[in-house]
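fwd from M.: "can u put these together and see what the complex looks like"

so here's what she sent:
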Amino acid sequence: MNTIQPGGLYAPLPIPAYQVLARMKDHQAQRVLMSIVSHLGLNGRESYPSYTTIAREAGVGRNAIRKALDVLVQYGFIKVFTIREGKKDRNKYFIQDAAYNSGLMNKFAINNRTFNASCRRCGAGMDRGGYGLGPAGATHIGCGGSVKIWTKDEKFQQVSVVSYRG
Ligand SMILES: [Zn+2]
């Protein structure tokens, strides 16, 4: 089992989400997500950089930020809440579990994953975010079954339909 939680000992980089966005070639959404993540507090899942800050860090304009946020919300990687701060509205961003765990991704995100492993027990296809490495080898995070990792030369075979939430 993977016992290291996002925001724990290691930098909370949502690598499974980055991989999906890379596959979509949506580098603007990737950079916007990176900016939001870099403002997370210790052990936190929420951050509230301003549009000005995101624009500077991600190198994109305000319209591109809006577009990127739409993608990140649709793919279930973040939730956005607007809070009143003085006379201004401010966005608060909550990073979702699906950004860290491809087993929790919704149907939009899952269609953009590349599977390189499959579960011997339940047959689910998965990428690196879907299994953990334990003493008994690769283990499917979803069902605990042992995982076959396919090499480049082997053709990935999915045994059954992949299930997803959302
Ligand atoms: Zn399984």
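replying to her w this: Residues 158-166 have pLDDT under 50 and may be disordered.
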